[in-house]
Amino acid sequence: LTFENTYAAVEDKNMVPFPRNKWVAWEKLARAATNSPFVILPDTGEIKEIIQNHLLHGKTYKNYLYIHFAEAYANRGAYVFYHVYNWGDKKEWEKCAKAAEFLLDHRALYESEPDRAEIAVVVLWSEALYRRTFSYLGLAQALAESNIPFDVIFGGGGKYLRDRLNRDVLSGYRIIFVPNALNITENQKLVIKNYVKNGGIAIVFDGETFGLSGEGAFPYGKGAFLLIPTWEYQGEEWDIGNLYFQGYDDSVRKTIADIVEKLLPGASVLRNTARKVVAYPYYYSAHRTVVIHLLNYDHNLETDGVTPKSDLVLRIKKPDFLSSGNAILLSPDSEETISLETTYHDDFVEIKVPGLEVYALVVLGGKRVSPRR
């Protein structure tokens, strides 16, 4: 799947400032819908604006492009250099090119299939899904910006998209979000009900699909449904995901994060980052390795500057396959391989990261990585 992306909530702008302008929701959905790596490239209008501002005003966007490049690979996809000969300055892509070299040097850290997260957002196709697109986008962005790891699961339906949802697809997840359950298939209803019956927690916006009404928790078997309210305003349907995507109010993000934290304490792996640093962690039990992508979105669109971060503290769930060993920090922004202070507790591992420029990998376990040449 290849797609041009733009941030749809702000219709009058080709370029939306960070930290809002994240593409993580689309990237995760593209991977889930195709079960294969996606390829993303900037919107043509955005590239045109970058070229015009560079030629007319001497502005640069090297870090802006680099952040989107790193984000695509942090979400297990790929990114296209949108450079056309004699159209723009190829120097704008220098940082992306350096990061690409880094990826090739450490490709083993990007290519394996990770273990499942504890949380999934289940996107179910139906004729009503178009009404809930912003609901999914806001929900996914809020989870990412709260540093709560999650997977995305796509279930088809109708004439052209096969319904792939089954018991095994949901197995192992402690919590699932279902932002759209309107007009879904009978199989999808049954799979979700059985998931809850066997101990899972389903956070849904459409209780009527499952014979429920109101809001709050509804025990079912060994698990529970948690109903999130929707409402009508000026002819448009709203919910907490839609509200966050269109308004980008941080209090709404915190409400979403609090729902998860009450059900799964310690779900957030990095706190107090003001939506400007996001950690994308992946567990690889087959390789006895944890890889955490760290991305700094504290970017100034006017100057293209990025404010470096210091003294970040990651707190991740302790993997069953590791009980000791320090993590290391690798980055396209540095030639050094840095050993990180790592503390093991009963249920979690604490990793202290002294600094982050734009993009870095924290690697715990596995084979030691030699410093880059």
Helix count, DSSP H or I runs of 4 or more residues: 10
Query: Got a strand count?
Result: 18
Secondary-structure class: alpha/beta
Name the helix and strand elements from N-terminus to C-terminus, one letter apiece.
Answer: EHEHHEHHEHEHEHEEEEEHHEEEEEEE
What is the residue-averaged pLDDT?
91
Please report the distance between the alpha carbons of the first and last residues. Answer: 34 Å
- Give the percentage of residues in beta strands: 25-35%
Q: What's the story with the biggest beta sheet?
A: 7 strands, antiparallel
Radius of gyration: 21 Å
Helix content: 25-40%
Low-confidence stretches: 368-373
Shape: globular
State the strand order across the main sheet.
Answer: 12-13-18-15-16-17-14
Question: Could you characterize the architecture of this molecule?
Answer:
This protein has helices spanning 24-34, 44-57, 62-74, 94-105, 108-111, 133-145, 167-170, 186-197, 240-247, 250-263, and strands at residues 2-5, 39-42, 78-79, 119-124, 151-155, 175-178, 201-204, 216-220, 223-227, 231-233, 236-238, 277-284, 289-296, 309-317, 327-330, 338-344, 348-356, 359-365. The chain is α/β, with parallel strands linked by helices. A hairpin with a 2-residue loop joins strand 10 (231-233) and strand 11. Helix 6 (133-145) packs across helix 9 (240-247), helix 6 packs across helix 10 and helix 9 (240-247) runs antiparallel to helix 10. It is globular. Residues 368-373 have low confidence and may be disordered.
